[in-house]
Write a structure and sequence with these properties.
Layout: E1 6-16, E2 21-32, E3 42-48, E4 57-62, H1 64-78, H2 81-91
Antiparallel strand pairs: 1-2, 2-3, 3-4
């Protein structure tokens, strides 16, 4: 069954798009049918800047296993002393 459930997360960053780097202001997160990945369902991530139109996006489709590994890797990276310090500083901004 298709859920079409999605979440939009505000983001501040950049992504490599076509033809160059682009600003990222949001990320759409969904678990649904992928367009290209060879799975029945996948984690779909769209890194976007809506102010620049529909072409300002970088789409990612990951298997559930790969997505969980990515979450673990992100958590490990953000546990580093540098990231912890940066997160604390950003909380005060």
């Amino acid at each position: 069954m298709c859920t079409w459930l999605s979440q939009r997360v505000e983001a501040h960053g950049a992504a490599r798009g076509v033809p160059d780097w682009m600003k990222i202001t949001a990320i759409n997160v969904m678990y649904d049918h992928p367009v290209s990945a060879p799975y029945d369902h996948a984690l779909l991530l769209d890194f976007i800047d809506p102010s620049q139109g529909v072409g300002a996006r970088v789409g990612i489709e990951l298997s559930a296993t790969s997505a969980r590994e990515l979450v673990r890797a992100i958590e490990a990276a953000l546990s580093s002393p540098e990231a912890t310090s940066d997160l604390q500083q950003q909380a005060h901004i």
